[in-house]
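ping. complex inputs:
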Amino acid sequence: MSTDLPPLQGTPTLEDVARVAGVSRATVSRVINGIRNVAPDIQETVQQAIATTGYVPNRAARSLVTRRTGSVALVVSGAGGDAGGEPFESQVFADPFFGRVAGGAVAFLRPRGIHPVLMFAETAHARDQVIGYLRQGSADGALLVSTHGEDPLPRLIVEAGLPAVLWARPARPTPISYVDLSHRAGAELAADRLVARGCRRVATISGPFDVRASQDRLSGFQDAMARYGHPYIPGVEGNFTHDSGEAGMHRLLAEHPDIDGVFAANDLMAQGALLALREHGRAVPDDVAVIGFDDSSAATACRPQLTTVRQPMEDMAGEMARLLLAHIEDPDFQVTSVIFPPALVVRQSA
Amino acid sequence: MSTDLPPLQGTPTLEDVARVAGVSRATVSRVINGIRNVAPDIQETVQQAIATTGYVPNRAARSLVTRRTGSVALVVSGAGGDAGGEPFESQVFADPFFGRVAGGAVAFLRPRGIHPVLMFAETAHARDQVIGYLRQGSADGALLVSTHGEDPLPRLIVEAGLPAVLWARPARPTPISYVDLSHRAGAELAADRLVARGCRRVATISGPFDVRASQDRLSGFQDAMARYGHPYIPGVEGNFTHDSGEAGMHRLLAEHPDIDGVFAANDLMAQGALLALREHGRAVPDDVAVIGFDDSSAATACRPQLTTVRQPMEDMAGEMARLLLAHIEDPDFQVTSVIFPPALVVRQSA
DNA sequence: GTGAAAGCGCTAACAT
DNA sequence: ATGTTAGCGCTTTCAC
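pong. complex structure:
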């Protein structure tokens, strides 16, 4: 039937497919990359040849000429060192937050054949490694989630001229695209709810002050409460962990035993606060109403279930990915920021 | 001072460094790859040139000739579709389990300059995508975590002759390396503890039956209890989620109101069980003792804190990575399985 | 010990 | 509409 061709050894290449199909490499390349200007019948022949050879394009070779890798870095950057000696990599996913962000990014990228490379950047050395990785052309750009404000990575990335999109506005003004939530609006929703419930002595467990989002949630809450005639709001600083929420609530209760409402800057801390309240024999929400932030899995894993400010993380992460691809596609794509609105999810705790 | 060289445009290449250093590309390549047979002074000169040019090797070009990418795929494979329409990507990280595995793998890989590419494989199409990705040479191998037993991916990978290591023994015998825990031993630890506490009417909330680990934890528990003179152990099947644990406990209580001890196949379900018990007014551990599995963050996020069977996930993930690199390094590396021992972590719930 | 030269597999001008 | 050709940036024999 067919002409006898020398058997292929190793992975088939474009050349092999071309030989089997009886056309040139260029033509095969064209049908693979879906470029028109290829006669239908030839197209068919080539497809056949691809199938019989089991050809798969070599990523490195393609990458070398296109200068694109088809992958992006998903970088989690931060200080680490909070959770008693536990390595940063382990801490990161302790908050359901990161998983949702990763999931949201993947949901957008995967249909486009792009996969994220997971990287952590908690030390100067790790940051250099990330920059080097990007500069090598190992990834086309970066999705960057910083866990604290003074992260130098955004600046380093801008200086290196690499495409990137941040989760959350950078602490210091940096010409880089980002996606964020209106944290102040979220805090306001919490304040509204607490006041509407009739709470008169509310307090707050904030996130770490070196995180901009923490500041915004705190000041947004304080301002809203001030507008309701409560100029002074007792507060303690947590670090977004369950334990810090529990400890914070204990402190709050010790100093202000008459508290009847609490706004915690994330669900994990709110969950911790619930534990402390129970220990003190306070009923939630009747004695003390509690509102969290994020609408993470923690919100429904405790009793009473948390009323919380929802942050549409998956959508936000998807938007980050969308912006990043735009930047990669067009180097002149304008620096953009997209701010999402929060929503109050009412459950049992307030 | 130095001879004036034409200015470099774009990223510097080996060629540029060679020109600046006044040597050949080959020599620069040698010092970069740490190959000896380069005179110390030349070495110095080259290093200098690398520094002044800001040279970074191009990954694609290197990859093309070495046939190595320096990255591995971290694939989470499973059925999905449990959690009410939520996309698989989002479900995955809902269990703290995956975050710890990812963290453990990164801890091992990162110092070696290798970064994992995150992939999900919950549908036939997604599986093909993973295989294709690997066959393209986009990653040197795969770390594979399956969420259910009948996952066809291990077989597909073996057929494609790709280096890979599994989390947990594959359901059907497959010539592929894996790392696992002695689930039976873990279940035994739980049984021992429950019996030692004086529990006489124990029950269990198992994981999904199509997961081998669930079967082993269940049968290991049953066998151990049988040895203690309890041949029949009431049980319900959960799916490793918080909610299924809660629902399971309600069912158990309805059918066996006199239960005084429960072994749940993971911490999330144990946490859910705690909620159900509280709702029924049962004190833990006095009325009912509860033991979980995994020693995840959920174990300390509830009250009473969970006594649980610890699975050294980070170590196990690290070992997976170690085995994978061995397979990549040496294609003849023997298929290996490593079984880790569990440990009982005693807290308050039992 | 160092350099010259030959590719790795692919895409993209440029011809035809 | 298809083929020819010239690289992309690197490693690696093979000479010297």
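Chain A touches chain B through 61 residues (CB under 8 Å).
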